[in-house]
Amino acid sequence: MQVTLKDFTKTFDDMTVIDKMNLTVEDGEMLALLGPSGCGKSTTLFAICGIHRINGGQILFGTRDVSNVPSQKRNVGVVFQNYALYPHLTVSENIAFPLSVRGDDKAKIEREVRAIAELTHIEELLARRPAQLSGGQQQRVALARALVRKPDVLLLDEPLANLDAKLRLEMRSEIRRIQLETGITAILVTHDQVEAMSMCDRIAIMNKGEILQIATPTDMYRAPVNKFVAGFLGNPPIVMLEGKASGDGRFIVNGGAGLPLPSRLANIPGDTPLSLGVRPEHFGAAGASQVSGTITFVEPQGRETLFDVTLADGVVLRSIQPAREDVALGHKVAWPLDAEKLLAFDATGQAV
């Protein structure tokens, strides 16, 4: 089921939170609404499921305008951050609840509950109550309850926020597996870039009620449209240097350091203000240029090590490399820089 927002507008009292947003989620796609707290992503999700009434524009499911259709008649499944399970009901009864409300017969309900329990790998938990479940198990139950009604659209609002790191990793792959197996259109709201990049076909990154870019995770990481997107994606984060073009294919950092520009910017006029983005994986591994400095921070991360390298004039670059013990804090190094993969932004913050 394709979901389309046309000039979607939402206000609270006299404050406009989202103004004329346009978005299309393709049939069978999983799309992430990614952004910081307060950017409007949950407001968008709640409007799609009918919790919020919209103040302008349209919400279409396929060709059907559901802008003024009550939430219970939109056939959407929703998984919230807190799971919202009924504590007095068993797992089986929680999953069956949407079908019971709909008036399905008991035999059909039992078949559907069994089938979705097998899909979500919780068939052995059906007789338990929520208090007897781990966080990951509760999350699976909430997902099963959302899917059992065979919704046209699955909406996920920060579904992994309450899980520990290991469970988040497990449930990321499980939710993606289930979404692919069912072929359902899904929208994930998250502030976690790793969730968005690992689970979704495309990402719509938001800030202040506006979609800044929609792209596949790989395309968005490699070619962000502006500094905000570049800074939001990437862990460890990108290092952003302020300065200007030299006129001869180099970048002069405010303070004096010179770094090469990507060849595509070789003819940019001198004194043009620029921001240069250096991702940690593009310094220290490969590249035609050499950059010298002193290691001023080391963070072992198991199979990888994160380094901060301070250049002669105080500029700090970050490097992430396979774990190594041949260099340490205070060592002087000359490491390669892959200038062709550096990101550049103009004075307004837009990519160049």
Main sheet characteristics: 6 strands, mixed
- Molecular shape: elongated
**Mean pLDDT across residues:** 93
Number of domains: 2
Distance between the termini: 36 Å
CATH superfamily of the largest domain: P-loop containing nucleotide triphosphate hydrolases
Stretches where pLDDT falls below 50 for ≥5 residues? none
Strand order of the largest sheet: 6-7-8-3-9-10
Helix count from the secondary structure assignment: 8
Q: What's the CATH first level of the largest domain?
A: Alpha Beta
Description of the structure:
The structure is a single chain. 37% of the residues are buried. The chain has two domains: 3-224, 3-Layer(aba) Sandwich (Rossmann fold), CATH 3.40.50; 239-345, Nucleic acid-binding proteins (OB fold (Dihydrolipoamide Acetyltransferase, E2P)), CATH 2.40.50. The chain has helices at residues 41-49, 91-102, 106-119, 135-147, 165-182, 193-199, 217-222, 227-232; strands spanning 3-12, 15-25, 30-34, 56-61, 64-65, 76-79, 153-157, 185-190, 202-207, 210-215, 239-245, 250-253, 258-260, 273-278, 289-300, 304-310, 316-322, 332-337, 343-345. The chain is α+β, with helices and mostly antiparallel strands and 352 residues long. The protein contains eight helices and 19 strands. Helix 2 crosses helix 3 (106-119), helix 2 (91-102) runs parallel beside helix 4 and helix 3 packs across helix 4. The radius of gyration is 24 Å and the shape is elongated. The strands form four sheets. It has a six-stranded mixed sheet, with helices on both faces. A five-stranded antiparallel sheet has the order 13-12-11-14-19. A four-stranded antiparallel sheet has the order 2-1-4-5, covered by helices on one side.
